[in-house]
Every structure is written in C-alpha cells, then in structure tokens.
Design a protein that fits this description.
Elements (H helix, E strand, L loop, with lengths): L9 E6 L5 E6 L28 H40 E5 L14 E5 L2 H4 L7 E5 L4 H5 L4 E8 L4 E4 L5 E3 L2 E2 L21 E3 L5 E3 L9 E3 L4 E5 L9 H4 L2 E2 L3 E10 L5 E2 L1
Antiparallel strand pairs: 1-2, 3-4, 4-15, 5-6, 5-15, 6-13, 7-8, 7-12, 8-9, 10-11, 13-14, 15-16
Length: about 270
C-alpha cells in the first residue's frame, strides 16, 4: 500500500447472522476519526475550532456595548446643554445671586452675605417702600473704579414723595414720621442729612440738581420714575443723600432671601 493509501478505510469480514462475512470499515492507525477532518467532514462546521459561531455573539455584544456608550454620551451631553440653558434663563429672567461687599446695609446684610434677587417682582407689582433692591451703579466713576457695578439699598421714598429730616435725626415722608422698624434702635435714621438737597455736589465740585425742582431747601421731592434709597447703616452708606434718587429702570430686582451663611439663612 502506498503512502497515499494510508487513510483509506479497509473492509474486513465479520460474521453475520447468516454465517457469512459482512464487510466492516476499519480505520487504519494514525487516521483521523470520521467527522474530525480539516473542514471537509460533517463535524468541521463553524465553532469547533473557536472561530465560528462563538465569535458572532461576541461581535454583536461588542457592537451593542459601543452603541450603548454612544447613547449614554449623547444623553449626558443633552442634559448638560439643557441644564446650562435653564441656568441662563433663570439668571437672566428669574433669579440672580449677589454678594454683599460692603457694610452699608449692616446689620440687615453683613459683608460676605449672599442674597437672591427676584427679577420678576416689579414686572408683577410696583416698588414698595421698605423693599431692599439691587440696582445698577450708574455713571458714577468712583463706584466703577472700585469695581462696583451693582448696589444694594433700601427704598425709603417713592416717586412724587418728599423726603426730609424732621428733627431728632428722623426721616419724614411728606411731613409724616417714617417708622423704620428694620433699623436698630441705636441708629439715627437721618444721620447724616445733607443740607445741600435738593442738589448734590458732583465730583468736579459743581452743584447738580437731583431732586424735583419744586423741592424745598434741605428736602428732596422724588422725581417721576425714580426712588430715594438709603443703606440701613446710615452713617456708612453712599446712597441717595449723596448721589440723588435712582431710576426705577436701573433696578435689577428685589432682594427676598439670604442664602449664605447658613446660620443667617432667611427671607428679607
């Protein structure tokens, strides 16, 4: 038998039921068992050598994992964008946080306090006397040189009202004593009171009329569209006494809650 014939099954006789020899297949030594060939037999289908059906589910799992990762990244990106948009809308139209840098509103607001301002308040109702407001500093170069673009003060007099000092360093509105319960008893509400009103002395030394021209000496009749504001720390506040009434249009909003520090958290 030649080398090429070594893998050819050999028929040998075995006794049959009839007594005759029935042929049987015998695999020569060293030959591969049936179905264990190199891809030509019945058992050489995909998966027997780890390269077939086992790789297809793995590939699907990999693709599914990649799709899941991309989906998660897209969802997070959308959430971040939505959060940024909401924050911008809230800050622009609803609420804004401010830091208190000076002592002009002590003891109501202390240096380092943080407050929230409601920007919608005066779209819904008029300004009220006693409101604490944040307003743009305006064209005062001294404020801007100090890095101050917004100020916080309390509204004392409204448009058309006349504010004055009426003895014992008290504030009067249209000749009636103003009860300022938010001030400590030790504070003199009108101290100091400028005798130059209805005018102020500008930075260049010139006298500038800031109140209504009908105002009597030492008083200020608040012009239309403006309010007279003062700090609660009357002896240490640059306010309408020195700079005149502020425009209602310059008011950012109403301070309604203190959010920092935690031990002073509360509505105002």
């Amino acid at each position: 038998m030649t080398e090429a014939d070594t893998n050819i099954p050999v028929a040998v006789g075995t006794p049959s039921a009839s007594g005759t020899d029935a042929p049987a297949l015998v695999t020569p030594p060293g030959a591969a068992p049936p179905g264990a060939g190199n891809g030509t037999g019945g058992g050489d289908g995909p998966g027997d050598d780890g390269q077939g059906s086992g790789s297809e589910p793995t590939s699907r799992r990999d693709r599914s994992a990649k799709r899941g990762t991309k989906r998660a990244v897209m969802e997070w990106a959308v959430l971040i964008v939505v959060a940024i948009v909401i924050a911008i809308v809230i800050k622009t139209f609803l609420f804004q946080a401010f830091y208190i840098p000076s002592a002009s509103m002590e003891p109501t607001l202390m240096i380092g306090d943080r407050v929230l301002v409601n920007k919608l308040s005066y779209d819904l109702h008029d300004i009220h006397r006693g409101d604490i407001v944040v307003f743009a500093a305006g064209p005062n170069p001294e404020w801007h040189r100090a890095g101050i673009d917004d100020l916080v003060k309390r509204v004392v007099a409204l448009p058309g009202e006349t504010v004055s000092e009426c003895g014992n360093q008290q504030i009067c509105i249209d000749g009636k004593l103003l009860d300022e319960k938010y001030l400590p008893k030790s504070v003199e509400p009108a101290s100091p009171w400028p005798s130059t009103l209805p005018s102020i002395t500008a930075a260049d030394g010139k006298s500038v009329l800031v109140c209504d021209k009908s105002s009597a000496e030492g008083t200020c009749k608040v012009p239309p569209g403006k309010v007279f504001v003062m700090g609660d720390n009357r002896g240490n506040s640059q306010d309408a006494r020195a700079n005149g009434p502020v425009k209602e249009s310059s008011i950012v909003g109403r301070v309604f809650v203190r959010i920092w520090p935690p031990n002073r958290l509360g509505f105002l």
